[in-house]
Amino acid sequence: MRSAYPALAVAASLCLTAAGCRDREITTYRAPKEKSAPPPAAAAPAGTDAAGTMANTAVPTADGANLTWTAPAHWQPKAASAMRKGSYTVPAGASAGDLAITAFPGDVGGEVANLNRWRGQLQLPPASEADLALTRFEQDGLKFAVVDFDNGQQRLLGAIVPFRGTTWFFKLTGPAAPMAEEKPAFLAFLKTVKAPSP
To answer: Which pTM does this prediction carry?
Structure first.
């Protein structure tokens, strides 16, 4: 008598093959894309934060002999701070400007880097040394690099003065039109800046 097992095996094999050949419904899935790390922020010049400001930043101010100056009579002196060697409110009609005088050891990153930091504070793009439109003059043994930056709303009148291994910054900021009118007074003020007697 023949065994039924081979016939059963063939039948089972056919059933499995038929089941494997049936169309199956295709299911798709969406997996969320892995988030990449945000790009690193551009390095700010020494003594500044990423926004280019010096607020709440521990930066040593210059020690030693100080420059002297005579402010225009209409500028209002403000209390000194740990960062500022001098500070004035510059009245200009209904608005006012702010004059900050600071000094730091060394070149604090160099002239072009500091001028571009000021440009960044006005949301202006960086500029090369040739495009910075510097006005230079020398007086009382001091060398002045003077700039006038304007973004249409705000104006920055500034001067950088190297002095005995330190760098002094004179920066007037405020509304564009009133600060343009204040420019002659700012330039006259710079002419009063003097080094102490040896």
So the answer is: 0.70
